[in-house]
Amino acid sequence: MAFGLGNTDGYRELNVPVNYVHTFGDLSLGLGYTFYYVFPNDAQFFANELNASAAYNIDLGFMSLTPSATYFFNLGPDSDTGYGSVPVASSYLDLRVAGSIPVIGEVVSVDPWVAFGLNFDYNTEPSSTGLTPFSGANNLEFGVSVPWQVNDVITLSGYVAYSVAFEELWGTTQPNTFWGGGKVAFAF
Questions:
Q1: pLDDT beyond 70 at 20
Q2: What is the count of structural domains for the chain?
Q3: Which of 8, 37, 111, 133 could form a disulfide with 14 if both were Cys (CB 3.0 to 4.6 A apart)?
Q4: How far is residue 85's CA from residue 47's CA, in Å, rounded to a whole number?
C-alpha cells in the first residue's frame, strides 16, 4: 500500500504482487504478476501486469549492492474503458541499485535504493487535448526500507521514498513527491 502527497486529495495505490524468482549464485531471474488498485482523488482504477526481472548481488562484506532491471507490461483493462488505469500493452522499465546494510544480524537491515524509470506509453503528460501517453524518462527515485525478517518465511518492512517525476501521474501528483508504505513478504 503506497500513499503520495497530491495536488488535491492525494494518490493511493494498493499493489498485490505474486513473483517467482530463481537464483543462480549471485544472479536472480524472476517472472511475476501484479494486480493494482489505484484510487487518486476518489476515482478507482485497476491494472493487471506481468513483469520480468534480473538482478545481480554484489557482496561488499559490510553490505551488499544489487543492480537490477525489471520490465512491467500492462495486460489491462484499457484506460479507455473508464476503469483501467493505463493503456493496454503499455509498459515501463525500472533500473535500480539497491543496498542492504545489516543492523541486527540477518534479522533487521537498512536497505537504501536509487531507481530510474523509463515509460513506454504507460504514464501521461499534459497536452492541448488533455492527458496523453508518452514514452521516455519517467522518474528518478530515492528511498529506504527497514525489513524485519520475522522468520524464514515472513518479512515485514516499512519504507519511505522520494520521487522526482518528470511528468505528473495522470495530473494528480506533485512533480516532487514523498511517499511511503509497508509490505509483508512471504518467501518459500
A1: yes
A2: 1
A3: 37
A4: 6
